Amino acid sequence: RWLVAAVACILRHNLTWKIHEIKREVRKQRRRSNDEENKPFRAENFYENNQNYPVITAEDACMLWQAEKITKKAAERAVQYSNNMTITPFAFLQRLLIRFGVFVPIDLSIDKANLGGREYGRIRCTDECCLGENSGCGHASQKINLSKTDEMPRFFFLPSLLGPGEPTEVWTYKTSDSWKTTLCHSILFPDGVPPGLMERITAAVLSDIYFATGPNTRNHNHHGGAATTQLIPQSLNREINHNRPNSEEQKLHVREILCWRAAFFLKIGMENMCPDGEIRESVVEIFCHLVDRESHLCVASESMGVGMRRLILSAKGQVGDGGKKIWNGGHKIVFRAVKRVMRGYGGLEFEKQIICPECLQKKPVSQASTFEFNQIRSVTLNGDETMRCQCGHLVDAILLTGFFDHQQKRNVSAQSKLADGEPIVPVTDLLGAVVLVGLWDEKSKKVIRAGSGFIVDKKRGLIVTASHTLMNIWGEEGSPFGEDYFGSRHGKVVIGVIPRSEDGNSLDGTTTVFRYFAKIIVKDDSIETKGVCHMDACILSITTRMEEDVGGDGDGCGDQPEILLLNDPDKMKREKLQQLKVTVNCELDEQVRILGYNQGGEGLRGRGEHLNRTADFARGYVVMKFATDEYAKGSLRQEFKPREEIVVMCYTIGGHSGGPCVNQQGEVIGILSRADSAEKHRCYLVPACEWKPLVKKAKKLSLF
Question: How confident is the model at residue 638 (pLDDT cuts 50, 70, 90)?
Fold first, then answer.
């Protein structure tokens, strides 16, 4: 009876009113006894600022039980007839309710916590733990000295008291960033959903997230977990430990929690230690929703029958390294919590599915293709890398399942893939058209930035390169956005080419000499018209030739007399420039090579110690052709919003930016824009179809 009464006095429709009434009575009693020095109950301001009932403080829970005769009497008897008690009866009751999911511990000091339509974020409790002397438990608590390391949660979320409400604009399956993807797992219920399912899932997920992040993680790691291991079952504790990042360099931090009766949204940050020692945070957004087929958030709804419902668990984050940052960044914790809840429904008919991420990006979500979960699992365990959905999209099996133990098999397979087959056109036949692009500062007489490019029109001396080598397209501080040469009045472009032999029929090695000056003549129009950059590409035009070639780090470029070549077809022809062919066609899994001049350091020389003028290349293969649509949101940076990109698996180094990516026939399919910050061999290209209009415009500007 006392346990039923303890739960009933918490799960009530007038919880907030009841708490205020009890506190009003306490204040009246204090005034009667002229006890002016006693302070009112703590956390009173919490209810004054947040007049809603899905959240209760631990102290007020004890106060309610103390005010209830049957629970108060049960607590007094427990203290009276127990020896060497190490925990108060009400503290035990709190832990019991946590274990059964009635109480969900929650950290309200996070940036945003919106529960049932009310904002609770950035609440910090500095008072003594509610289980101390003045917890409202009377003499029952005064006889017990709790350990200082036995910390209890200060706030509890009550999922069963959530009012009506549905998420509206909180989630989209689309993304405009090629380095992001959206994973989506689904449980399809053909004959309806058991009552209280979403309540149990929400309680399980938020409890696991609470104990796997924040100060409780630190207490568990450094104090042996005295508090956390007693609050949850031993089997669940082992599962949370398994979910927690293994490395001390990876720490999870909850940024946002939004909860409704049938949905919740989480934003979790994970700190990662980079090889250079810098700590960076990757953010994962997780959304879980119980929907019917009419909902605009229901995936694959066209394949659902009348009366069916679908539980959707979706996560959005960094796709690199097989989606490891998504899974380790909180998605694995949520996934396993949902799985654990579903195991408790014996005999319930449901079907576990995985939604194709390419369909989510490129098609209406209602038409997305599905995979059977066990089918994908079998494919991954057998060592296969990819599968095709019903729409023909090639998807990464490890990305969908999170089975990173099989990553090594995939890496071995990738190496064998690159070793198979020799290119039709050798690299040596292409290097003559690959140029070293340097930003020359006339004031300091030095090359201050370097990248790569290629000659696209030898008749007019036109070169394609990456914009970010010569201007600020990322919106970084320190230089104006989109202005040529980073806004410097002393900037100009110097071009290095590999010289030919004396007979002019072959290249003389693979090392360039600085021979030409050039200028930017065409770039993305949206930089000036819209204040954003949609493509990391620009067109250069060779203007002059230096009288003598310059080697070394290019310090002598400013001392040379210059010969005018611009708009002079005869002189340009005598330069015997080489150009590369361009194609807008590329296929998934197609083998490619990226050519350029890496500036990442070579041999005993570190990065930035000298200017590398020797060409090299890297092999890879195409894994994705990415395009945004009008429904996509978000961007890599606020000012850089690429429309289309090609994703290739190819290890590149700084300095390759702007270098051509060629297929086996030696045709350029795109230029290198950047590498993934987490997975260095995952690269992003500006497709030829994006910058070919710039080349066409540059040709029109020429006088011949």
Answer: low
Tokens at 387, concatenated: 């599968």
147-165 pLDDT, tens per residue?
Answer: 333 456 788 888 877 877 7
pLDDT digits (tens, 9 = 90+) for 429-441: 999 999 999 999 9
Q: Locate tokens 């949850």: which residue?
A: 232
**Residue 501 CB-density burial (10 A; 0-12 exposed, 13-18 middle, 19+ buried):** exposed
Pairing of strands 538-550, 562-564: antiparallel
Tell me the Ramachandran region of residue 652: left when phi exceeds 0, alpha when psi lies from -120 to 50, beta otherwise. Answer: beta
Confidence at residue 416, expressed as pLDDT on a 0 to 100 scale: 47
This prediction's pTM: 0.69
- Neighbour-count burial for 566-591, b at 16+ CB within 10 Å, e otherwise: beeeeebeeeebbbbebbeebebebb
3-state secondary structure of 435: strand
For 532, how many CA atoms within 13 A lie in the half-sphere containing its CB? Answer: 11
State percent of the chain over pLDDT 90.
39
Decide: residue 421, CB within 10 A, 0-12 exposed, 13-18 middle, 19+ buried: exposed
Q: Which one-letter DSSP state was computed for residue 278?
A: -
Give the burial string for 505-532 (b: 16+ CB within 10 Å, else e): eebeebbbbbbbbbbbbbbbeebeeeeb
Cα angle 269, 271, 272 (rounded to 5 degrees) comes to 135
Cβ-contact 68, 89 below 8 angstroms: no
| Integer angstrom CA distances of residue 257 from 85, 268, 309, 339 | 36, 9, 24, 20
